[in-house]
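Customer escalation, tier 2.

The customer says the design service returned an amino acid string that "doesn't look like it belongs to this structure." They asked us to rerun it and document both sides in this ticket. The original structure tokens are below, unchanged.
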């Protein structure tokens, strides 16, 4: 390794920069130490740097030739002995001759180490005093923090009890929500059954109405045709046989009475048909009323379910929840559940009423068919 120092110009009392490149080792970039001359390229290199290079690299470190020799450079040694180097030790900055630089640097380093030892001892004593004061302050702070920790632990125990009670209340509300969902599913299934039954009844009534109208028209037309034919035959017989005119008149009167009777029966059947149609319309209105009730029930159920879920979310997010407020909310929830049960009972009531009207409609259909058979 070379000498790490600046070159001093004694005449101008300043550090040289132009001459520095001539006496710098190209390996360590420091002032040449024990300079060696390379015969292959006339370059100069430090003796320690040359020893290090030869251990790992056989060629010349400057021109890369395979064969080279290195000898001590007397010219460079005499040239360096005429210059002075500035001591790099902190606080010294003394200009020392090249040949005496190593001894001076060692002596400066020893003095610097002694100064640093005294300075570090004073710093350590001051630091110990500061650490002792900090230790006392931290000790007092730890005592205060222990008191705060004990008070916080007491608060945490209280909060844990509240959390346990809230979790129990949350589980109860969860069970109630399951019951409400189950009731809603049952109501939905019953509504589907009622709608299917209503569609079947409506379809049967339409088919029966169509069949009754067709049968009535067919029978009336056939009866009128047969009576008209008989009347024509009687008239022809009257023309053919004047002697039987009186008997034929009696027969005609009898047939006309039958026609009037059949006409009256036809009117009564049509009246019964209109009555059945009116009752069917009333049943349709009642069915729409039942559907409105079911819709209202579903709406109220959705409302109650949302409120219950909202209350459960509030229970999960909020710990500060007093027993009085929890009891009031619980009573309100049970009131809403009671209202839901009342609506369910009304739905059952309207369901029974609809079944009763369906039975009455069926009886009217039987009476109508019986009247048609009599006609």
């Amino acid at each position: 390794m070379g000498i790490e120092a600046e070159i001093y110009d004694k005449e101008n009392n300043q550090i040289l920069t132009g001459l520095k490149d001539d006496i710098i080792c190209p390996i360590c970039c420091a002032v040449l130490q024990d300079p060696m001359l390379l015969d292959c390229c006339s370059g100069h290199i430090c003796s320690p740097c040359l020893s290090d290079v030869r251990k790992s690299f056989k060629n010349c470190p400057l021109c890369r030739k395979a064969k080279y020799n290195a000898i001590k450079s007397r010219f460079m040694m005499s040239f360096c002995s005429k210059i002075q180097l500035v001591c790099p030790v902190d606080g010294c900055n003394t200009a020392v001759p090249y040949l005496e630089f190593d001894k001076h640097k060692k002596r400066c380093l020893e003095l610097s180490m002694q100064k640093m030892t005294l300075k570090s001892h004073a710093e350590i004593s001051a630091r110990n005093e500061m650490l002792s004061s900090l230790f006392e302050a931290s000790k007092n702070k730890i005592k205060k923090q222990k008191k705060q920790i004990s008070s916080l632990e007491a608060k945490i125990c209280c909060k844990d009890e509240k959390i346990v009670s809230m979790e129990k209340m949350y589980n109860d509300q969860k069970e109630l929500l399951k019951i409400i969902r189950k009731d809603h599913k049952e109501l939905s299934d019953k509504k589907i059954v009622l709608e299917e039954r209503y569609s079947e009844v409506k379809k049967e009534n339409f088919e029966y109405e169509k069949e009754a109208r067709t049968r009535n028209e067919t029978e009336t037309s056939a009866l009128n045709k047969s009576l008209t034919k008989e009347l024509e035959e009687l008239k022809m017989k009257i023309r053919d046989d004047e002697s039987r005119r009186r008997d034929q008149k009696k027969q005609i009167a009898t047939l006309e009475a039958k026609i009037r009777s059949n006409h009256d029966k036809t009117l009564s059947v049509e009246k019964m048909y209109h009555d059945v149609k009116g009752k069917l319309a009333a049943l349709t209105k009642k069915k729409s009323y039942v559907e409105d009730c079911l819709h209202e029930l579903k709406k109220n159920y959705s409302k109650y379910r949302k409120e219950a879920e909202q209350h459960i979310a509030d229970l999960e997010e909020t710990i500060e929840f007093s027993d009085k407020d929890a009891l009031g909310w619980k009573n309100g929830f049970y009131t809403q559940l009671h209202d839901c049960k009342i609506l369910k009972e009304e739905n059952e009531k309207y369901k029974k009423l609809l079944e009763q009207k369906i039975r009455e409609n069926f009886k009217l259909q039987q009476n109508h068919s019986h009247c048609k058979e009599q006609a």
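Tier 2 assessment: The sequence is consistent with the input. Residues 101-240 form the longest helix (140 residues). The helical segments are 47-56, 74-80, 101-240, 245-317, 323-374. Sent an explanation to the customer and offered a walkthrough call.
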